[in-house]
Predict the 3D structure of the following.
Amino acid sequence: MKRLFSVPHFSDPEKQRRANTLAATQVASVVMIVLITGVSAIFAPDHPEIIPAAAVGTLAMILSIYLLKKRKVVMAGWVIAILGWLILTLDLVFISGIGGVNILGQVLIVMFAGLVIGGRSPMIIMGISLVANLIVLYLEQSGTLVELSPLPADFTRYMIQSIYAALAAIYISRTDTIINKAFKEIQANADRYRALFDRTNDGVLILDLNWCVLNSNPQAAELLGFLEPDFIGLDFSHRFGGGGKIDRTAYLNDILAGSDLPVIENMLQQENGSEIPVEVSMAVVLDSSGDPHHIQCIVRDITERKEYERRLVFQTLHDPLTNLPNRKYLEDQFLNINNRREDDQRLVAVFFIDIDDFKNVNDQFGHHNGDLVLKELGARLQRSVRDSDTVARMGGDEFIIVLENIHTKENVIKVAKKIISHISEPFQIQDQMIMITVSIGINFSEKRNMAEVDLLKTSDAALYKVKEEGKNNFRFYDPEKQE
């Protein structure tokens, strides 16, 4: 029996409540059919019409139970509604002959329709009932219903009426329990979602279809620097900054069309005008009719992640000791220069710098002090050139300087002399005074011809000529003298 009246599981809580109410109605109807048929067969054998009526009711109940098993809640509900209406309206009038119609029973059917079938079904059933009651009233006034064989005013009629009343009371009580349980489950789900809504680390916003904030959790308001009451009604799309303003109409149309949109990374403008990097995901929420109702938006502060990514990129492209650009950075820069305009006649000069006899510094003062010398050397090289020039450490005691947009060779010579002069000054390292010199190999080329000249290789060759000639000097690459 339990398996017979078991209720399928529905993901929609409202549909589950309707199915539970329908199952309770089926149980009550089956009990009613069995009891009334049994009482009538024993105490009112002169009313055999109850037997076919019970058979029709049983078939209707079987059909309703079958439809519920097939998850067709509305169709199964209509079977019960029609059966109940026929019993409580026509059967009592034309067959049992109790007289009049059972208004309370009709109200019960209307209630059932509203609870299980929904929609306009209560109005439809009530309209049909009003018409039927008017017809019954006319038939009674015209004397058409005088040939009935009513149940006698005895214990049998009392028993049948009592069964109707008792089952109606039990059914209403059971339905009330189901509804209360459903409401409690809905409230529990709402509380769980509210807790998730309020306690998540991300900002959660509910937007209307015009991008205005309908509701938000405290994190969203805090993220943008607003008090929650001031946040409601704000046009959220105007908060996108950093030159990344979105096409609101196009993006909204994509959302409403149900498109799978990628997560957006954008700058979000706070109430004080500052901007923070965020990750934004949005989805449309439909109403019960399947129409767009509002937009759910989740905003995540990715400041720490962006800072971590920036540090990773910096570490990839920079020397860990001096924080100067490294070889990889230099290769990328040369690639960018090579991709520039082919008619650019300005010069690019490369200085290949090596510390003279740096091994002696490490041996005499220790590797730690040697590292400090390298750091200070990098700082002095940066102070010797323009901000637009690049100073890089290739490794060990080798450094590279790239001068862009140089117009004459004399400009390059001035920079080389300036560097040697700055490096010749003593290095104050802790309590030690350390002196070093450097050798510099130089080559330059017009930007449009850089692809034809290996400036790094040729400046390195010029450096070794300086080393051979006594160090502490600079020299330009001369292909004829390099042979």
